[in-house]
Amino acid sequence: MPPMSELIVTIPPAPGGGYKIHIESGSLSALWLRIEDQFPKHRKFVVTDANLVAAGHLEALIGTIEVPTYIIDPPGEVSKHINTAVSIIEAMESAFFGRDSVIIALGGGTVGDIAGFAAAIFKRGIRVLHIPTTTVAQADSSVGGKTGVDSSVSKNAFGAFWHPSAVFIDPATLTTLDDDQYRSGLAESVKHALIADSEYFDYIEANVAGLLNRDLGVLEKMAYSNCRIKAAVVAEDPTEQNKRRILNYGHTLGHAVESASNYKLLHGEAVAIGIIAAGLIEQDLGLGGPERLDRTKKVLNALSMPLEIPKSIKKKDLLEIIKYDKKAVNQWPRFVLLEGIGSVLCRDGQWAHEVSRDVIEKTIDRLYP
Amino acid sequence: MPPMSELIVTIPPAPGGGYKIHIESGSLSALWLRIEDQFPKHRKFVVTDANLVAAGHLEALIGTIEVPTYIIDPPGEVSKHINTAVSIIEAMESAFFGRDSVIIALGGGTVGDIAGFAAAIFKRGIRVLHIPTTTVAQADSSVGGKTGVDSSVSKNAFGAFWHPSAVFIDPATLTTLDDDQYRSGLAESVKHALIADSEYFDYIEANVAGLLNRDLGVLEKMAYSNCRIKAAVVAEDPTEQNKRRILNYGHTLGHAVESASNYKLLHGEAVAIGIIAAGLIEQDLGLGGPERLDRTKKVLNALSMPLEIPKSIKKKDLLEIIKYDKKAVNQWPRFVLLEGIGSVLCRDGQWAHEVSRDVIEKTIDRLYP
Fold it and tell me: pTM of this prediction?
C-alpha cells in the first residue's frame, strides 16, 4: 500500500481551524478507528445512501459497531431535496443528538451535499466529515464547503458554505461504481486541468487507458491533483466572491442541460457538454483557435463523454433555466472562459464574463447533433 | 426629534464588513429612502407578518411603492417552522430573486428569525436587513446574527449564524404593541443589565414608570443600552463558543417553561421566570444572598412579569425538555450564573456551569405558587 497522502486545506472551517484531506487506496475499512481517534468526544451520526449499503461500503466503514445511520433512499438527485435534510435533522433530534455531534457523510456528491447542508443548519451548525466514494465527489464536491439541496422550484435553492472538519478519500471505492457513474465524474478532473494546470491535462491525455482501467496509482494521482487544485482556489476565495467562480467552468450551460434532461444526464456528462460549450464561446470571442477545443473534445471523447446536447432537450428550456443561475445578474448568467489550457481569462479583475444572448444561442445551436 | 443614534457592530457579517445599528424614534416612514440609498443595486424582498400589516407599519415602510412581500400568517411562534422558511424562498425563486437580493425583515423576533434564516440559506446566503418592531426584537434578537426555525421535533432545531447588513430601530413602533407584548420584551433589558451593567440596572429601577408609559426618551435609551451590551458580547464571541453564552442567562429554564406552556407564555414572561430560577440556583450555590434576588424580583414584578411557573406546567415535562437544550452536554444543560448585578460567574474560563439535577429539581419546586 502506498503511504497516505495528506493535503492541508487552509480554509477556516466552522467550527475550528483548517482541515486535512487524507488520500489512500484501501483505507476505508480502517477509517473508523482514525475518526474515533481524531474526534473522541463527538457523537457520530452516519449519512449514506442505499447504493453505498449495497456496495458494502457502509459495512466496510463501521463493521459491527452500532452507529445511528440515515440511509437516503432512493439514492441520487431525486432525494437531494430540502425534505431529506429535514428528515435527517429530525432523526438526529429524536436520538438526542446535540451540538457535540459530527455527521459522517459516506457517499457521492448527493450524499455530501445533503449531509453537509444538514450539518450547516442543525442547531446553527455542527461538524461534518466527508468520505466521498464517487469520482465526482472525490474530484470536486467533498472539498470546498459548498452544500445544498433543491427546492420544489429549482436546484440548489437552499445551501450554505460549510467546511468539513476532515475529508477521507479511498480511491479504491471507485472500483465498485458502474461504468457510467465512474466515467461521468472524470469531467471534473478535465475541468480542473483546463482551468489550472496544463501539465495535469497532459497527464490525463497520456493516461486515458489507466483511467478507464481504474488503475489505483492513476486514481490516487488524480485525487491528489484534483484536491490540490480545488483547495488552492477555494482557499483564495472561500465564499465565491470572485475567483472561485473559475471552478464553475463548463457548469453554467452544464447545469442547464442536466436540469433540462430531468437528471437523465449525469452531472459529469452535462459538464462535459458545458465544457464544449465554453470552448465554442471562446472561439467565437477570439480567445482560442480550434486546436485547443479539439484537444479537449478528444480527451472527453476518449473518456466516452457526450459532446452534444441530446435532441430531446429544447433550446428554449435551456435559455429559461439559465435565468435562474445562482450567479445571474439581471437574469443572465456570467461565463468563465479560458485563454489557454491551464489559464482562465481574467479581465478588469473579473473571472466571470458577460456573454451576449446571441452568442449563447448560436453556441447552443452548434451543440445539437 | 432627537438625532439618529448609531452603533457600529464590529462583527464581520456575511457578506462584507461590520454593520450599523440605527436608533431613531419616528424613523420608520423615512427608512425606505435610506435603504435604497445604502443598497441601490440589490433587489428588495420584504418579509413581515399579519400583525405588522394591521398596525400600519408595512405601509409606513414602503408607502405606495410596489415591493415583493411575504406576509407570515398566522403571526407568531406557530409559524416559526422550517416550512415557512421554505415557502419564503420558493416565493423569491418564483419571482426570479437571485444572489443580488436583500431580505428586509420587518417585525418582531419571529419574523427576524425566519427571515434571517431564509437569507442565510437562500442560494448559500444573501443579505438581510432587520427592522425590529417589538420590545424583544429591539432589545435582543435583531442584533447578533442568530437565526432559526423549529422542526416538528423541537424549537430552533434549524438555524445559522447570519449577521444582518444593517439594523434600523424605531422605538416609536413599540407604542402600537398590546400591553402583554410590550411588557414581556422588557425581560431581555433586565437580563442585559444583570449580566453586564449595574448602572443600567439602576436606570431601569428608577425608570419603571417611564418604561410602562412608553416614554420615547426612555425607550431610545433602552434600545441603545441593549444594543451596546449585546453587540459587545457578540463581537467577542460571534459563534457562541463560550462567553456569548452569558446572553442565555435565564433562558435555559425559560425556554423550557415557554415550550411546556405551548407558547401560551410569551418569551419574555418565560425568561422572567428563568431569571428568577437562576437567582434561586445562585443562592443555593452560595453565589449571592436574598437581597440581590429581591431587587430583581421587585423590578420584574413592577413590570408585571410572572415570577412563578404556572401550575398547569408539569415538572417532569420541564426536566424532559431541558435535555434537548442546544448547549446540553450528555443530555444536561449548562447554566449561566451571576456573581453580582452586572457580573457573570466565570470559572476556569467557562461562562456556563454544571448544576446538579438535585439543585435544578429543588429550584423548579420552589418556583411553583
Answer: 0.87
